[in-house]
Amino acid sequence: MTEEEVKKLKTYRWYVWGLLVIAYVIVFFHRLAIAVVREELVEAFEITSTTFANLGSAYFYPYMVMQIPSGILADSLGARKTVTLGTLGAAVGSILFGYAPTIAIAFIGRILVGIGVSVVFIAILKVQSQWFFEREFATMSGITAFVGNLGGAFAQTPLAMLVAYFTWRSTFVAVGIISGVVALLCYLIVRDSPKDMGLPTIESVEGKKRQTMKVPPLGEGLIKVLLNKRTWPPFLAFTGFFGAFMALTGTWGPSYLIEVYGFPRQIAPNYTTVAILGLSLGCAVIGKISDVMRSRKLPMLVFGGIYVVTWGILVFVGGGKPPVEILYPLFFIMGVGCSTFVLGWACGKEVNHPSIAGISTSVVNIGGFLGAAILPPILGRIFDRYHDVLEATVLFQKAFMYCFIFAAVGFVFIFFVKETHCKNIYKESK
């Protein structure tokens, strides 16, 4: 191992990570874009609030189901091929969604997008475990989430402007074409580990000995992760936190701001954009704080407590209509607090066998998308049932109460998270 090889490793890993995180930006765009084009979709396909919410969830259900297969693919096929194929699938789905003549075809396009993008994040976590030091894992996860969330920010006000100029159909077709280009670049540039380039492994650079534990087969590894009781608290915390956040920013937030506060359709997404930017910043900050403190649980409790308080303000202050002057800071702080779930990935990885990092993080990742899949349709049914009965403020307060409950329950499960002190403790948990 020469100094030149180490320098090349430390340089090239940023090319690998940078390209994968561009694919992750596309993931976040699709995750949040549907909320901004709600009115256009309702008008184009003549659908109810429940159907609209189900169209949004059509992304999350396949995403959720694909998390364990994503982990298996990341651990077996490798990140390079997995992300290439997934992003190509998302490209086809986005183009199909843009051209959809009926709501059924729109659902198919949305499902294809969900399947395609579902593999990207777990592949990034796998690559991080091969190209970055263990002490950098939470920081890199936070930075990844920060950059990815910028795609969510693009799916707010910028998307509203693009739709106004080019129509929603043209916009989604263009995103599909861009996705295809990114998929090709991933295949050409990304490498699964430094060994694929004849470079020293990250363990050898750190001066660590190779793991002597027997590596379990993939099926056995999955069972071990599922039977490990320490896997589930971060899973359930992620369910509550991310489900509530996506119900607001990914489905119903712009409608809430339009109907309760009377904001124009081009202005309302500014507020959800602020929430997403808060999440982006929080993801970067909480990962760094955790790595510096050598603690996972304490930052999760602090940030998570803040998140629950912000939901309490949104639901209970002013009868469900807080003063407009506090909305920007409230939404921003809510996003920062929601970043708690970032540390859940590290916790899941650090309480399970180090050779199956893809599987362990994918299992935890299911939690967030379970919440994001089931909560928005619950709110949709409330809107369909009470839309003609309740005034808008009362209606949204009733609906958002479920978000508050989800967030509060997620916070409770943080108390059951096992503190790892930022290192793998699998031997201790056997």
Automatic annotation (TrEMBL):
GO CC, alphabetical: plasma membrane
Domain of life: Bacteria
Cellular compartments annotated: Cell membrane
Keywords tagged on the record: Membrane, Transmembrane, Transmembrane helix, Transport
PROSITE patterns on file: MFS (PS50850)
Any matching Pfam family: MFS_1
Sequence ranges assigned to domain Major facilitator superfamily (MFS) profile in this UniProt record: 16-422
Key word Transmembrane present: yes
One GO process term, biological-process aspect: phosphate ion transmembrane transport
Keyword Transport: yes
Membrane topology reported for the UniProt record: Multi-pass membrane protein
Alphabetized Gene3D superfamilies for the sequence: MFS general substrate transporter like domains (1.20.1250.20)
GO molecular function: glucose 6-phosphate:phosphate antiporter activity
InterPro entries recorded: MFS, MFS_dom, MFS_trans_sf, OPA_Antiporter, Sugar_P_transporter
Name of this protein: Major facilitator superfamily MFS_1
Species of the source: Clostridium aceticum
